[in-house]
Amino acid sequence: MKRSFLLPLLMLAALSGVARAEKADTTKPTNIEADQMVYDDVRQVKTFTGNVVMTRGTLIIKAGRVVLTTDQYGYENAVLYAAPGSLATFRQKRDGGPDLWIEGQAERIEYSEQTEVSKLFQRAHIQRMDGKRITDEVNGEFISYDSRAEFYSVNNTASGQSKPGAGRITAVIQPRNPPPAQPGQPAQPATPQPTQPGKDQ
Fold this sequence. Notes:
mainly beta; 12 strands; 2% helix; disordered N terminus
């Protein structure tokens, strides 16, 4: 069975348990731009280098280098490498609303099609957005997401294990239902001022 080599990258857009990637993207053609492509048919390795831009529907992936490897069972593994001084990034629309998005970035992003686990290494960041408003975001040196279990973890070292003194992970979780705006308060009636003795009434 032939597998789409972009499937591993599509899963990166599901890095939050309730963030579902745009379903229509799976039926769209894949477009890849790069300065160079090398395909090793014997080892089943495709390497794209130099300002790599991969798009499929609403999904946009940018990296300095992308390596796609097919194992003996037909599963693919994808590794995105950031260009020097930059980060590998992805952005994709989520189902559930007209303007919902998920974005992620890291120095290296790995995905195993067999295990359906995505891993973001070093300066890892994921955020969900409603239009331009960020609704949730997490930061750490390592983020792992298991799409089967809909479970992800964030650690303070790129080894995938948190260590005391190695740094802090951060998370910002906005309220799901912000309180409605309070209506304007009615004007308070003027308080009558007491008359002072000796003044004309």
